[in-house]
Amino acid sequence: MRSSAAMRPTPFLSAFQTRLLSDTTRQAIEKAVGSAPVVLFMKGTPETPQCGFSRASIQILGLQGVDPSKFAAFNVLEDDELRSGIKEFSDWPTIPQLYLEKEFVGGCDILVSMHQDGSLAKMLEEKKVLAPEGAESDSK
Amino acid sequence: MAESTITEASLKSALIERLNATHVEVTDMSGGCGQSFTTLIVSPQFAGLNSLKRHRTVNAALKAEIAAIHAWSAKCQTPEEWEKDKAKNGGASAKPSLNGTVDGKVEGVEA
């Protein structure tokens, strides 16, 4: 009895978690996570980020040359349920959050360090989500 | 919910106690309201863990605290990595990250 009780979360906690993340929210988030190979949950939009950490993350994805057709961004400020639900879904307390092929990569700190040590470039290359060479820029 | 206010000192002592951190630097990046912190955490518990798992370890240890503040940033090193970094930088310790801030202050909120 004692050990099985210790293995489970307290009734309050499990009830609380269920209330936080309803089936409909979970399904909506799963759909969002799978909507593109590269998905960023952020504050604001890629054009006008509303937070420095979201801005830094979007800039990094741009510098890496992620193919816009393989990228989707979701603005958590437009949807309170998404804003709290994504934290629960990812078990991650902050925004932004990056997903690559439905797998959670990390937040801004992790993106920055992976950008600096080259592991992000390698990962994006392997997943074939970068824009074709020479096609990524329209500023010429 | 934590009953006391979260400060640089309270975060530091929590990290030392809960993660056996051997070196902690906490910087308030809120510009005064005490709601945004960036940290450098050196702990032997990070050994063998990738970056994501290190952050998850810290997030779990400070679940209530991180939920209560607006912004949170962490740099996680093992004692060996920290020493190596220090030697490389001529004896200067790595600093908490200020990525995503403007002159060391957050604009907007991450949490």
Automatic annotation (TrEMBL), chain A:
Pfam families: Glutaredoxin. It comes from the Eukaryota. The keyword Cytoplasm does not apply. Keywords: 2Fe-2S, Iron, Iron-sulfur, Metal-binding, Redox-active center. It comes from Apiospora saccharicola. This is Glutaredoxin. InterPro entries: Glutaredoxin, GRX_PICOT-like, Monothiol_GRX-rel, Thioredoxin-like_sf. Gene3D superfamilies: Glutaredoxin. Residues 38-105 form the Glutaredoxin domain.
TrEMBL record, chain B:
InterPro entries: BOL2, BolA, BolA-like_sf. It holds the Pfam family BolA. Residues 79-111 are annotated as: Disordered. SUPFAM superfamilies: BolA-like. Belongs to the BolA/IbaG family. This is BolA domain-containing protein. The lineage of its organism: Eukaryota, Fungi, Dikarya, Ascomycota, Pezizomycotina.
